[in-house]
């Protein structure tokens, strides 16, 4: 049977919107040493605003956005949903994409109005090539400002770069401070995004370790390695985080806007996307453990 103190702690967490699926997770939460955070949609809101768009000379910005958003309709990625919202706000009529395939952490491809369209990260669209002249300014700004960059191609040619301002969640700095005072020794950012963008966000939050350009398998491997040194917690929102969430001693999913696959893989689900509430839950877990011992 689960001790009464643990049941009562779990219900206090639930009142804060922190769903702890079982008592074992609460006990692990009390002992976390290394804390991993995904970036996009976890440390940042993921509810990005489209602030600039640059296109190849062959296409108008509105049409570029319409094609990208048509495809993004079928993605659960936070930034994908923001691209769709930006297109709808501008009154663009989206097409239904066909033959859509998603590569978690990279982007997606499919047919839109007979064109083979791809949308996603810079690497997924342009590979290691330097940006063409029309895209250079947006690529540089995305890196400097820690924004989300979305890139698209049609029929194999790169044709648009979108600058999406993705703000750090209001409660993130406070949550990180609180977690450190609760005894978390190491905070690591584990992101699929580029190093420049990741470093801009990590620097403003005082996060010491940044692991950028992580595939879902690389995120999993980073956590598996850290587990040999102590108790790990991973917080994430995306399909690309699901394997890592399942591997950590405690996986925590952003439940309100995150992907269902993340919530299923995690032992803790934030029903309201508030990292400070997660910190309160860790404090509850530590106090409960102190009482139980
Ligand atoms: P994180 O691991 O920090 O959550 P992701 O790897 O999910 O980050 O996304 C990082 C970047 O990859 C985004 O900022 C965006 O540039 C790009 N990206 C990935 N998937 C998509 C998508 N479906 N649509 C648009 N951009 C995407
Ligand atoms: Mg994410």
From TrEMBL:
<protein>
    <recommendedName>
        <fullName>P-type Zn(2+) transporter</fullName>
    </recommendedName>
</protein>
<comment type="similarity">
    <text>Belongs to the cation transport ATPase (P-type) (TC 3.A.3) family. Type IB subfamily.</text>
</comment>
